[in-house]
Write a structure and sequence with these properties.
Alpha-Beta Plaits, 5 helices, alpha+beta
Length: 264
C-alpha cells in the first residue's frame, strides 16, 4: 500500500531533504525510522527537496510498504525513532496513483528575516539576519516585477538541474512584524536557490543599494552573475504543497507565524 505523510522539521542539523552518502539528510533519518516500523527498507519521495539548513512547517512525502500497521504506528511509532528535529504530523493511506512530488500543483515557502542591529541568539539558525534598516515599501515595489510567469535564470543556482528556468510565481508577499520581516512565495515549482537569491536581491533594494526597478532589470537580463549574493538558508521554511481535494488528504499547508517578534 502507499502511505502519505505530513511532517515538520528543523533543518539546521541536516544536509537538506535529499539522502546523502553520510546519512545526514532528512530523508535518511525518516527512512531509518520507517524501516524500524515496517521491518524493511522503505524509500520516500517528498513534495519539495529542501537545501541544507532549510526548515519545513509541513513537508508532504509518500512511501510504499507491504507492512500492515495502524495509522498511529506511522505517526507515533515512527516519531519514536526520529531525532527531535523531525516529527511526523499525520499519516494516511492513499491510492497508488498519488505522488507527493508530481501530484502537487503548487509549493509554498516563507523566509523570515531578523532586521536588527545585533544578531539574534534565541532564533539562531531559524531566521536570517540583516543589520541595517530595510525599506519595506521599496522591496514590495521591486518584488512586484517577479509575480507571474518568467524566466528566472537571474535567480537560479549554477548547479540547478531543472529542465527549464521558466516558472510561475503566483505569490510574492512581504510583511513586517516588529523587527522581523517575512517573505512569502507560492509557485508551481522553484529553481535551486531561487528564493534565497530573490531574498538577497530584495534586501539589496531594501538597504538602498539598488532601486526597485533593478529587480525587473535582473529578471530581464537573465544573468545570475550580476545579481546579489545568495542569502543564508537559516530563515527559509517549506510551508506546504497543494493537492487536488480528491486525494482527501489532511492539511498539506501550514503557514509560518512570525516568532518572538520584538519592537527594538
Amino acid at each position: 500500500m502507499r502511505i502519505a505523510l505530513g511532517l515538520e522539521f528543523a533543518g539546521t542539523p541536516f544536509t537538506g531533504w535529499q539522502s546523502q552518502p553520510d546519512g545526514r539528510g532528512v530523508q535518511d533519518a525518516l527512512e531509518r525510522a520507517l524501516q524500524a516500523i515496517a521491518g524493511a527498507r522503505t524509500g520516500t519521495i517528498a513534495a519539495g527537496r529542501t537545501d541544507a539548513g532549510v526548515h519545513a512547517t509541513l513537508q508532504v512525502a509518500h512511501f510504499d510498504t507491504d507492512a500492515v500497521r495502524p495509522d498511529s504506528a506511522w505517526v507515533r511509532g515512527v516519531n519514536a525513532h526520529l531525532p527531535p528535529e523531525i516529527a511526523v504530523q499525520w499519516a494516511k493511506p492513499v491510492a497508488v496513483e498519488f505522488h507527493a512530488r508530481f501530484a502537487a500543483s503548487a509549493r509554498h515557502y516563507s523566509y523570515v528575516l531578523a532586521n536588527c542591529p545585533v544578531r539574534p541568539a534565541l532564533l539562531a539558525g531559524r531566521v536570517g539576519w540583516y543589520h541595517r534598516p530595510l525599506d519595506i515599501a521599496a522591496m514590495r515595489e521591486g518584488a512586484a516585477a517577479l509575480a507571474g510567469r518568467h524566466d528566472f535564470s537571474a535567480f537560479r543556482a549554477a548547479e540547478c538541474q531543472a529542465k527549464t528556468p521558466v516558472k510561475t510565481l503566483a505569490l510574492i508577499g512581504i510583511d513586517a512584524v516588529g523587527n522581523h520581516v517575512r517573505f512569502d512565495f507560492s509557485a508551481n515549482a522553484f529553481l535551486h536557490h531561487m528564493i534565497r537569491n530573490i531574498v538577497g536581491a530584495l534586501i539589496h533594494v531594501g538597504a538602498g543599494k539598488a532601486e526597485p526597478s533593478w529587480i525587473g532589470q535582473l529578471l530581464e537580463g537573465r544573468d545570475r552573475t550580476v545579481a546579489a549574493p545568495t542569502f543564508a538558508a537559516d530563515g527559509l521554511y517549506f510551508t506546504g504543497a497543494d493537492y487536488d481535494p480528491a486525494w482527501n488528504l489532511p492539511a498539506t499547508r501550514r503557514p509560518l507565524v512570525l516568532p518572538f517578534a520584538r519592537d527594538d
